[in-house]
Amino acid sequence: MHLEPIDVLTVGQKYSKNDLANLLKQPNLSQVREGVASSTNSNSYFLFVDLEKTGKETRFHFDDFFEEDFFHWDSQTTQHIDTPKIQDVVNGNTIPLLFVRVRQKEKSKTLPFIYCGRLRYVSHEENTSKPVHIIYQNVDFDDFTENIDLLEVYRWKPSDAGGTTKSKIVQRGTVSEERKRKFRKPNRTERQGLVTSRVGQGFYRQQIIEKWDGKCAVSRIDALPILIASHIVRWSESNDEEKLDADNGILLSPLFDSLFDKHLISFDDDGSILISSNSSRISTESIEKLNMPRDARISITDGMLGYIRRHRSKFRKLESGDEN
């Protein structure tokens, strides 16, 4: 029985071209030296991408990177939007499958690619040709992944290699229809339990991780598996737009997340930390034992100010003994 590539490939799994040749029964893949290859037994179109272009000729410094669940991709230098292969992709006649690695080699050893799943054409940059710059929707983008290799690919940006993108198309902050369909409201247990102000999974978490560079806003700890993506203004107090707004998000370690959620800490407009001094809420001794960084200051953008002020207003009321 013939199986399609998407039936045997796993998002986040590492594959060399030899692996793919054997797994997909397409010996030609082991000989592919270019960044694209057509499937010989399906309508798949394989894209092989090195994010870092070290050691490559300047003409091969393609503009390839993830932005949210979209993927920026430069075609081959012989292709334009009307090239038959590209038109097949645009019209949905072929399905691009994306394989990415950050760098080609490590300690002289060729690295495998990370499989990122299916792509769907969204748009292309006008007036780009040979290569044409295409924006894809990554259909299989995994907002829930804890796969470190996949997260590294998702978070990589041209600036990480000292470069900049030439693309004028900006997808950052764009919430795709695909993500909206997957986005879920916290369940009853979460609303009543620890997750009172956050949606700890999914694309919102990915947006907050990117916004805060994968580090706790206060301590700058980068232990990603334990960091919590919280809403500054609680889910229950946010409208639909605010629930999806990355500016209403903050990345915190469990300690600071708990203190922030209970309004035992907040922040001034300049980012300076405010710590509760109301002993009926938390004792001075407890604050001292927590070794709180009283000189801590977080980075606050203009878009965050309204949310921070609402959080701080509640902090002030609770400090004054006003429970309402």
TrEMBL record:
Coiled coil: none
Ranges of residues in domain HNH nuclease: 216-268
A Pfam family matched in the record: HNH_2
Residues annotated as domain DUF3427: 9-128
Name of the protein in question: DUF3427 domain-containing protein
Natural source organism: Candidatus Lucifugimonas marina
